[in-house]
Design brief:
Blueprint (H helix, E strand, L loop, with lengths): L20 E4 L17 H11 L9 H18 L6 H11 L3 H6 L2 E4 L3 H4 L10 H12 L2
Parallel strand pairs: 1-2
Helix pairs in contact: 1-2, 2-3
Length: 142
Amino acid sequence: MTRGPRPKENAVRRNKHEHAQELTNEARPGRELPRGLGITTSGARRFWKTWASAPQTSGWTETDWAELEITVKLVDAFYQGDVKLAGEIRQRTAKWGGTVEDRARLRMSIKDEDQDQDADQAPAEMTTPADLDEELFRLLNS
């Protein structure tokens, strides 16, 4: 048994937030990782590639890209064994909408236009599983 009056049949949500963003999930190459950063781990390279081509980056300015460069340096240090940086990395990626919960808090949604077309195809791997396993093993056994 529910409380209150029954909702109208054609109810329309009228309290849409003025700063809400709807992003498209279209494939884009993204920026190249700057060589001057000196990134050595494949985990940090994968982090850059993931974020550089993410839907959130479509409206980024140079200051946002500078933040990504700083964060990828932290991720590189994390994969080299400095696990105390995990909290800082998580805070930075939350500001960009890294998880579903973060995107909901930021009122950000990603519209997947070609979800039906890509359902048949397997996702392409960016690095080999052996590289990922080796890094994870080294990180957990430090």
